[in-house]
């Protein structure tokens, strides 16, 4: 799957796509190597039944390898830089890779091995901290992003953090539930974003999009529905999984900082979702006003189908056991806290997106904070430029001094040139008769053989 994803990411065959494909492939290779090491240690069990794995002398190392492999494949901190870079692929590929295949492989690995991984004492606390940091980092990054597909990719990063958060709360069934609902509305978001990109002269910049409500009404209404599901709007697919996860965070005895970030992320979700909708749907556009937009049937039918699933499947899946048994009884003021945070984030996005208040945005106006958010808390230069600098320098020196230097000097072509030059110089001072030519040739051959051996 990692190799196929690499081929899909480099589809456009330009330097940006190639760089994104290399980062994607190398990061996923880390997870693949750790999985192979874990499989080697699992051979000591003598069987392949996951639910019957018992503790052994290598259990701790095996659990650590599985955790690191899952974190690298699901793009959690510190392996978060490859997921936003993978949007260099075509939009249908992003809808497949970022919703239900490559990124969810690591999370499904944690869910599948959860009974065995849970035996480690600090497992739940460790993945909870990793997930919360990833959620907070990706949420702040999405508030300053101007690339439409990258905003959706950062949203995927946050949703993966939410899934792992539910695992940290000891709720693997809810984690699997959110994987299913997230795949529906995230695929819908990417397909609608691809429609916007196609209708805006293939640009992904939010500042060039807008005024699409009347021209492509189906896509605009479906992307609004997907954003509502992303924010956890009541009675849509995302509500049934995210609301229970938030209730679990409030009900369980957790650290106050983790609880605050878990609730604060709802405001960030509504912030960048409303900002995305205002700029792409209701805001003015900067492209040619004479451009006529139309919706094709092969785009309308898939997004209508995914929209129907995004509305109904959350309720249908929540009736199935053991997901149906997951509920919490909380006071009314705690029940309404998530809804209040979502409303505050939406209002804040509306105020900051307007021209009057946008100049007061602290995170955008400050150079250091803006650059740190654009590079995902400096993870992009640390995981790419910083690591690749010395290997590239060593490779350049190898080519310059060895491949194009000493190897060229002792190669057959260079020795042939030396023999020709020396023969020409000797022939200038020797008499012009055949025995002398034969003798000089034998002398040169003998000297060459002695030099080589």
Question: What report would you give on this structure?
Answer:
There is one protein chain. The protein has 453 residues and is mainly alpha-helical. It folds into three domains: 83-375, no CATH class; 378-409; 417-453. 72% of the residues lie in helices and 0% in strands. It contains 21 helices and no strands. The chain has helices at residues 2-9, 15-42, 59-73, 82-85, 91-97, 102-112, 114-117, 123-143, 148-168, 172-199, 217-231, 237-251, 256-282, 297-318, 332-335, 337-353, 362-365, 367-374, 379-409, 412-428, 434-452. Helix 13 (256-282) packs across helix 16 (337-353).
What class, by secondary structure content? mainly alpha
> What is the 3D shape?
elongated
User: How many strand elements?
Assistant: 0
Number of helices: 21
Mean pLDDT: 81
How many domains? Answer: 3
Order of helices and strands: HHHHHHHHHHHHHHHHHHHHH
Radius of gyration: 30 Å
Strand composition percent? under 5%
Q: Which stretches are low in confidence, meaning pLDDT under 50 for 5 or more residues running?
A: none
Share of residues in helices: over 70%
- What is the terminal separation in angstroms? 51 Å
Summarize the biggest pleated sheet. none
């Amino acid at each position: 799957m990692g190799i196929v994803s690499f081929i899909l990411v480099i589809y456009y065959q330009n330097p940006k796509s190639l760089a994104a494909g290399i980062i994607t492939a190398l990061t996923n290779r880390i997870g693949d190597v750790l999985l192979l090491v874990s499989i080697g240690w699992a051979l000591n069990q003598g069987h392949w039944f996951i639910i019957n794995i018992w503790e052994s002398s290598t259990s701790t190392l095996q659990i650590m390898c599985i955790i690191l492999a899952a974190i690298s494949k699901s793009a959690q901190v510190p392996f978060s830089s490859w997921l936003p870079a993978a949007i260099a692929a075509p939009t249908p590929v992003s809808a497949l890779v970022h919703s239900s295949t490559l990124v969810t492989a690591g999370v499904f690995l944690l869910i599948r091995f959860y009974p065995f991984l849970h035996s480690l004492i600090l497992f739940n606390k460790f993945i909870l901290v990793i997930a919360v940091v990833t959620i907070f980092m990706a949420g702040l990054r999405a508030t300053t992003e101007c690339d439409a597909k990258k905003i959706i990719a950062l949203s995927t990063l946050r949703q993966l953090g939410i899934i792992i958060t539910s695992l940290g709360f000891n709720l693997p069934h809810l984690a699997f539930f959110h994987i299913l609902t997230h795949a529906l509305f995230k695929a819908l978001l990417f397909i609608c974003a691809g429609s916007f990109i196609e209708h805006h002269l293939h640009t992904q910049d939010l500042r060039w999009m807008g005024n699409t409500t009347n021209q492509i009404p189906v896509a605009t209404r479906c992307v609004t529905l997907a954003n509502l599901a992303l924010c956890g709007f009541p009675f849509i697919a995302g509500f049934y999984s995210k609301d229970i996860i938030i209730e679990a965070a409030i009900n369980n005895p957790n650290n106050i900082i983790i609880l605050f970030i878990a609730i604060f992320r709802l405001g960030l979700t509504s912030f960048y979702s409303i900002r995305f909708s205002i700029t792409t749907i209701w805001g003015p556009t900067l492209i040619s006003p004479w451009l006529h937009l139309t919706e094709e049937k092969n785009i309308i039918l898939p997004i209508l189908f995914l929209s129907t699933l995004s509305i109904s499947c959350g309720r249908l899946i929540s009736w199935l056991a053991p997901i149906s048994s997951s509920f919490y009884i909380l006071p009314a003021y705690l029940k309404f806290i998530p809804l209040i945070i979502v409303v505050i984030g939406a209002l804040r996005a509306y105020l900051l997106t307007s021209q009057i208040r946008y100049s007061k945005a602290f995170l955008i106006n400050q150079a250091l904070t803006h650059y740190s958010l654009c590079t995902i808390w400096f993870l992009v230069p640390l995981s790419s430029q910083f690591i690749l600098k010395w290997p590239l320098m060593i490779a350049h020196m190898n080519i310059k001094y060895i491949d194009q230097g000493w190897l060229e000097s002792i190669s057959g072509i260079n020795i042939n040139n030396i023999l020709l030059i020396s023969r020409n110089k000797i022939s200038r001072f020797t008499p012009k008769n055949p025995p002398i030519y034969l003798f000089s040739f034998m002398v040169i051959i003998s000297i060459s053989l002695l030099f080589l051996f």
